[in-house]
């Protein structure tokens, strides 16, 4: 009986232990569930916060892009204004190419096609700067009120847009600005240009003659123990925009007529022969070159230098001129 009592007693003890374990396990599971709910709630709040921050960042970036892509919005006075580099994100105009801002495209819009350039340059070799005026005749293929040209590192002063040969047909320029991201200049008119009509835009600008191998740049060479300077161009493939505003893509072909004013101690060269050389004020000369064939901007070239030259006449009566640095004197000096 004693053993049986002990057995039952021990059995009840085991049963009680099992019962306790059964009671404890649900409480442990409930605590785990509570902890998991807290983690899930925290994770959901983190995701929601991240989404809100991302939306705010996107909105701020869009607003910043609008600020950098939009001009100050100040209307032009008369037919020309000075270019304003400031941006104003509050300026919005109706129907910007049906909601598309053409200056943000990687390629120039196809609404316009250049026909001819008249380019006049004044080159200052003492401080390596140049001033320029360019008149671009172009045809409007599709109605638009935007003129988008390439221009890089150019300080633009004024723009005039007119129809035909007479400036009294000038169109009102509403605003103009540069979009550096795509190296373009934008001229927005008050009204749209009509298809199948020719227009002209006149631009005045100035820039530095940089010491690099792109655009209109300067270089040096030795002669008679001195350092000589020259200013030459390298426009291929897309660097004509550093020398003058233009449609600087190979698909846009036009004719060019160049005039270069320089000190009389230098001479100027270009793609075509000099038609007329006019003496200006004391110590200056203006060379007017013949019109080029129809070609892309990267074929255009000019130079202001102290080269020497020799001419010869071919059997067919064609004059061939060779320009070169006079290295003979330098070679004798080194000997």
UniProtKB/TrEMBL annotation:
GO MF term (any one): metalloaminopeptidase activity
Top-level taxon of origin: Eukaryota
Record GO biological process: peptide catabolic process; proteolysis
Bias (Polar residues): 78-88
Gene3D superfamilies reported for this sequence: tricorn interacting facor f3 domain
UniProt KW Transmembrane keyword: yes
Keywords: Membrane, Transmembrane, Transmembrane helix
Pfam families hit by this protein: Peptidase_M1_N (PF17900)
Renumbered residue ranges of the record's region Disordered: 70-96
The UniProt record lists the keyword Mitochondrion: no
Recorded GO CC terms: cytoplasm; extracellular space; membrane
UniProt domain Aminopeptidase N-like N-terminal: residue ranges: 114-299
Protein name: Aminopeptidase N-like N-terminal domain-containing protein
Record organism: Erpetoichthys calabaricus
Lineage: Eukaryota, Metazoa, Chordata, Craniata, Vertebrata
